[in-house]
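User: I'm curious whether this sequence folds into something compact or stays loose and floppy. Could you predict its structure so I can see for myself?
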Amino acid sequence: MQKIILGFAGEMSCGKGTAAKYVVEKYAGSYHRFSTMLRDLARRMYIEENRDDLQKISTFFRQNFGEDIMSKVIYSDVKNDNNEIIVVDGVRRIMDIRYLKDLPGFKLVYIEAEMAKRYERIVKRGENTDDAIKTFEEFKQDHKQESELQIKDLKKQADFVVDNNGTTEELYAQIDAIIKEC
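Assistant: Here's the prediction. I'll summarize afterward.
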């Protein structure tokens, strides 16, 4: 059986992580996330895991080791993963799929949701140290960060577009349909 490799892209708090967790749990898939390598470095260097610092680490590595450095890492991780279903969470740039799209079974899934819903999710989730206290204006400003600028362009590259403005069950149904089609 050919692997199913789903790359999840979309703006902050659109539901990428929720979709990824669902695939891992329901389909016994494996999980790779772009920010994991950044968080690993931040922890090792005792740097706070907030959005700004993680972006600085990403920018440093891409500027000094090439725009495709993170893409190479994820590609190698996924290529060496023996699971039948693999999720790649946090695709943010066209360069992120440079190598992944060459893997048989790779499909880019763009997840979208309204800004107000995404703001509610990010504050509730509190994944980064600064998320729980973030104002709606700060959230809107976050979308102007370099790491966010190419995300909407990925929608044009997507094999599937998921509307995550509804319930979690509706999100899951769309993900199930994608897996069935793959």
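Summary: The helical segments are 16-27, 34-44, 51-65, 69-79, 115-125, 136-142, 151-157, 168-181. The domain at 4-34+70-181 is CATH 3.40.50.300 (Rossmann fold).
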